[in-house]
């Protein structure tokens, strides 16, 4: 939907930006205009019509348009234009009543239930589910028997029936927000619940509520018209639904009678839904917490550096002068030695909405020899992961290789058709991801996820594949392979899951292993075990390893050689000893300083701290 | 799993009990003066009182309710106050019509939405935009308006199908098909719009998951990833939407049955609720809630089968 996550937004422009973007969203603008026009016409009905809606003259029955009667007459010789505008009054004010009732019931209860949780939440949710299990149309029909057939009373009932739509929306968001750090921080700093709700929670639910209002208004109008179509409602006031009913009675004689009320109804509810969609595009991007979708994005697309947006496309001349590129080039892999992976001049870009590409990796050179562990280090957003994904050929949607070449065991893979590219993945080059839990499919057992690639890639029988999967689980030092084999991912620990993923990576005997921060998500003791396991596998299987990490301790521990990345470029390469003990690049030096004990572990976010002398 | 089903069933029974009690109380709240409606304005006070006694309306409401409940538990929903019909019998006569309508709509919705949603979510581009526009249009237009347009186009103008009437499935298959096609089409459009959007959305969400990338990195063909892993993970949210759609489909069925003159529970609701025929209204409420509870149970079981994590919840 919105691919704007990489865009640079100054916080101060959020508000104006949202309104401005709505104005620039053609669909949103048109729907808002249509709704405004309908509301205006309905309000000005007495001025716009030449005869009251109920004035009937049978001589005019089914007559076409004439002066003062732009839409002609209905079956009873009443002015359609007049009935349409007065009918709109009933329809729109009815929808407003339903909306007000459901907002009043749904929003406060959702706030409190979501914020307080516990038994109160349980009860409120149970009631909401109960109301939602009731078919609105049938309840409305039944309540008509009890409450009489006044439209207004029925609209109040309808408001109660749709209140769960607001309750569930607000409650869901608040439950999510309550767990967020800034709410905890506010609570710790002594703010009362009411102030926290007002200051932190309302801001987040505001956007989704506005969107829901448009949707619920559309639903209310549709249901109301449906009731009136069934002949329920005050007989004397004209409504769109009643007009449709009348037209339906005369469907064989004059189907055209359905056109105007149908159009009015369709336009109104259509414009509301489209407006909701446009509002969602505009608001949900900003409020962030709204759907959680923005934060759930699996792909860590490197954020453009927080510099003025117009300088984001890197200036090659500037870069060349700033980088010790010449010095770095000499260091790429020992000459003449057969390399497993050889990356030359790689540039990766992401497609922007305007059709241009934003380059996030620039002219990267990188080599890994068989049996060698190469560390690719740099802070988050430096392009390490994008480089690794390019080698695997699994760049996320919108990303592509702009320039350069990637040789895997001497074979150029850039531009290779997907089928042949796929044949290399898993077999020639395998991948160990960062987050163990999110990298296992929750719907399948560990065993079936291991067996599947073995069967597809190696063509083994089921029995052989199961045996091989069990062997792999023992290989990664899992104590009870059979039990892990049968488990679902949510039943095993993070460290165990990472072992399973390493087993999966090893399943088709790769020669190059790409490990993307393989220990970052694990606790310290497990980290050491996993690193030890990787080292052992690497030695026993003569693997080449590209280890993506920001942890220089891991580098010192494991790596033969290191490449340091910053803002999409390699700034320094060399042996691990060389880079760690005598860093040539000032950026490497700051990275090293950051791990020294007397320096604060993490300073406030200042990615541009390094100034090239 | 059996524990889970038992728990959901007992929750459903509790729901049924609470709703029936609330409905009964609400229906008894206003003085509908049923006896006078039945006997006419000329009836004397004595006759009215006799009638009220006959109907049991002279007893306290809670006594009336427990009496009703005791009979209802044995499948006896009494007789209609106004037509004298046996309510259980009347509902059983009409149930097949509504049931066949709902089953067809659910099947059509599930199949079409799955195809459209996966197609749009995986391919994106032009296909995606078409599906999205269709989705918004289907969602934006009130269902009965779509139904009216369908009647005008296919029954009045083109005359491909009859505009009104119903032929029982047991009587003639082709007759049943020709009378049920337009109602099914009318009801399906709206729910396809909703469900296919959900399928599309969850397919896109799942495609973005880390494990899909890892599966790609293992060298699995993308068709296999989509049809085995993405589809399975994306179906759970789609199924819950389908379950929720069922409730609004029941409401839609009321209008559609009325428009096409189908003798189902929907048109029964319209015709019997006007006068406060409590035995009929109560039976209709109970049957609808049973339908909703069963459908949601089915959806939960399917979701539990698809998603192992939900089984423990």
UniProtKB/TrEMBL annotation, chain A:
Q: Where in the cell is it found?
A: Cell membrane; Membrane
How this chain sits in the membrane, per its record, is:
Multi-pass membrane protein; Peripheral membrane protein
The record's listing under InterPro entries reads: AAA+_ATPase, ABC_Ni/Peptide_Import, ABC_transporter-like_ATP-bd, ABC_transporter-like_CS, MetI-like, MetI-like_sf, OppC_N, P-loop_NTPase
* Listed transmembrane segments: 26-49, 92-114, 126-145, 151-170, 201-223, 258-279
The molecular function terms of the Gene Ontology recorded here are: ATP binding; ATP hydrolysis activity
Please classify the protein's predominant subcellular localization into one broad category. membrane
Q: In which family does this protein belong, per the annotation?
A: Belongs to the binding-protein-dependent transport system permease family.
Q: What is this protein called?
A: ABC transporter
The UniProt entry's GO biological process terms, in alphabetical order, are:
transmembrane transport
Which stretches make up the ABC transporter domain? 343-592
Show the segment(s) annotated as Disordered.
286-333
Automatic annotation (TrEMBL), chain B:
Q: How does it sit in the membrane?
A: Multi-pass membrane protein
Question: Which CDD domains does this chain map to?
Answer: TM_PBP2
UniProt-listed GO biological process terms: transmembrane transport
- Gene3D superfamilies from the UniProt entry: MetI-like
Bilayer-crossing regions:
99-122, 134-156, 176-195, 238-260, 280-306
Check the record and name the PROSITE patterns matching this protein: ABC_TM1
What keywords are annotated for this sequence in UniProt?
Cell membrane, Membrane, Transmembrane, Transmembrane helix, Transport
* Keyword field contains 4Fe-4S: no
Highest taxon listed in the record's lineage = Bacteria
Question: Which SUPFAM superfamilies does the entry mention?
Answer: MetI-like
A single Gene Ontology CC annotation of this entry is: plasma membrane
Subcellular location, record wording: Cell membrane
Query: Where in the sequence is the signal peptide annotated?
Result: none
Q: Which residues form the ABC transmembrane type-1 domain?
A: 95-299
Name the protein family: Belongs to the binding-protein-dependent transport system permease family.
This chain belongs to the protein called ABC transporter permease
In which organism is this protein found?
Planobispora takensis
Please name the taxonomic classification of the source: Bacteria, Bacillati, Actinomycetota, Actinomycetes, Streptosporangiales
């Amino acid at each position: 939907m919105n691919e704007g996550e990489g865009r640079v937004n100054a916080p101060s422009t959020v508000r104006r930006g949202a309104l401005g973007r709505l104005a620039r969203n053609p669909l949103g603008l048109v729907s808002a205009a249509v709704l405004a026009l309908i509301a205006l016409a309905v309000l000005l009905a007495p001025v716009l019509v030449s005869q009251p809606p109920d004035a009937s003259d049978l001589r005019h029955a089914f007559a076409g348009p004439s002066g003062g009667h732009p839409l002609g007459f209905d079956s009873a010789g009443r002015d359609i234009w007049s009935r349409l505008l007065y009918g709109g009054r009933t329809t729109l004010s009815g929808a407003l009543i339903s909306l007000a009732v459901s907002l009043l019931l749904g929003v406060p209860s959702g706030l409190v239930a979501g914020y307080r949780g516990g038994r109160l939440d349980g009860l409120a949710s149970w009631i909401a589910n109960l109301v939602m299990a009731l078919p609105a149309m049938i309840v409305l029909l039944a309540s008509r028997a009890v409450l009489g057939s006044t439209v207004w009373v029925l609209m109040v009932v309808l408001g109660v029936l749709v209140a769960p739509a607001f309750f569930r929306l607000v409650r869901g968001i608040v439950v999510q927000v309550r767990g967020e750090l800034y709410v905890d921080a506010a609570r710790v700093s002594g703010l009362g619940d009411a102030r926290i709700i007002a200051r932190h929670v309302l801001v987040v639910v505001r956007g989704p509520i506005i969107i829901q209002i448009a949707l619920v208004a559309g639903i209310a109008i549709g249901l109301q018209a449906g009731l009136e179509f069934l002949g329920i409602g005050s007989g004397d006031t004209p409504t769109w639904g009643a007009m449709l009913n009348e037209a339906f009675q005369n469907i064989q004689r004059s189907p055209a009678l359905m056109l105007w009320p149908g159009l009015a109804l369709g336009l109104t509810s259509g414009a509301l839904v489209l407006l909701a969609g446009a509002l969602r595009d505009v608001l949900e991007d900003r409020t962030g917490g709204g759907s959680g979708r923005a934060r759930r994005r699996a792909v860590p697309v490197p954020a453009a550096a927080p510099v003025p947006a117009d300088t984001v496309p890197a200036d090659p001349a500037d870069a060349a002068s700033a980088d010790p590129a010449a010095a770095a080039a000499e260091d790429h892999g020992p000459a003449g030695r057969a390399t497993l992976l050889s990356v030359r001049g790689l540039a990766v870009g992401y497609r922007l909405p305007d059709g241009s590409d934003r380059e996030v990796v620039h002219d990267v050179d990188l080599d890994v020899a068989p049996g060698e562990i190469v560390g690719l280090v740099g802070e988050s957003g430096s392009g390490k992961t994008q480089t690794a994904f390019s080698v695997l050929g699994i760049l996320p949607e919108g990303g592509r290789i702009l320039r350069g070449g990637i040789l895997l065991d001497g074979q150029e893979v850039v531009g290779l058709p997907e089928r042949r590219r796929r044949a290399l993945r898993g077999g020639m080059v395998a991948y160990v991801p960062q987050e163990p839990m999110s990298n296992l499919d929750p719907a399948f057992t560990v065993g079936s996820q291991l067996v599947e690639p073995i069967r597809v890639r190696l063509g083994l029988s089921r029995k052989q594949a199961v045996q091989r999967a069990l062997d792999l689980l023992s290989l990664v030092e899992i104590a009870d392979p059979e039990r892990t084999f049968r488990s679902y991912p949510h039943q095993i620990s993070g460290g165990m899951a990472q072992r399973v993923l390493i087993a999966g990576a090893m399943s088709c005997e790769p020669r190059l292993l790409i490990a993307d921060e393989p220990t970052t998500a694990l606790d310290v003791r497990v980290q050491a075990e996993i690193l030890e396991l990787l080292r052992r596998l690497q030695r026993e299987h003569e693997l080449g390893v590209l280890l993506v990490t920001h942890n220089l301790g891991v580098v010192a521990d494991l790596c033969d050689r290191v490449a340091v990345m910053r803002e999409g470029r390699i700034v320094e390469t060399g042996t691990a000893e060389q880079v760690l003990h005598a860093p040539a690049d000032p950026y490497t030096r700051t990275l090293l300083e950051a791990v020294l004990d007397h320096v604060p572990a993490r300073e406030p976010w200042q990615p541009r701290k390094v100034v090239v002398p | 799993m059996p524990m889970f089903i038992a728990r959901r069933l007992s929750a459903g029974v509790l729901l049924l009990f609470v709703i029936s009690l609330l409905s009964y109380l609400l229906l008894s709240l206003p003085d509908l003066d049923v006896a006078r409606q039945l006997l006419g304005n000329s009836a004397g006070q004595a006759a009215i009182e006799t009638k009220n006694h006959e109907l049991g309306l002279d007893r306290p409401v809670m006594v009336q309710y427990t009496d009703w409940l005791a009979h209802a538990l044995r499948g006896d929903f009494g007789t209609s106050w106004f037509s004298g019909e046996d309510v259980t019998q009347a509902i059983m006569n009409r149930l097949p019509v509504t049931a066949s309508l709902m089953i067809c709509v659910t099947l059509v919705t599930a199949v079409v939405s799955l195809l459209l949603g996966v197609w749009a979510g995986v391919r994106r581009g032009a296909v995606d935009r078409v599906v999205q526009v269709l989705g918004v249009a289907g969602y934006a237009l009130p269902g009965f308006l779509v139904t009216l347009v369908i009647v005008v186009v296919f029954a009045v103008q083109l005359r491909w199908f009859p505009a009104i009437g119903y032929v029982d499935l047991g009587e003639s298959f082709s007759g049943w098909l020709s009378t049920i096609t337009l109602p099914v089409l009318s009801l399906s459009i709206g729910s396809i719009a909703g469900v296919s959007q959900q399928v599309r959305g969850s397919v896109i969400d799942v495609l973005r998951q880390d494990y899909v990338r890892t599966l790609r990195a293992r060298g699995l063909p993308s068709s296999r990833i989509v049809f085995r892993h993405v589809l399975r993970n994306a179906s759970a949210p789609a199924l819950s939407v389908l379950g929720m759609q069922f409730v609004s489909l029941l409401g839609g069925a009321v209008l559609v049955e009325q428009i096409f003159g189908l003798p189902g529970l929907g048109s029964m609701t319209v015709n019997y609720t006007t006068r406060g025929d409590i035995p009929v209204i109560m039976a209709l409420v109970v049957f609808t809630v049973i339908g909703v509870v069963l459908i949601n149970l089915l959806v939960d079981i399917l979701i539990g089968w698809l998603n192992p994590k939900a089984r423990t919840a």
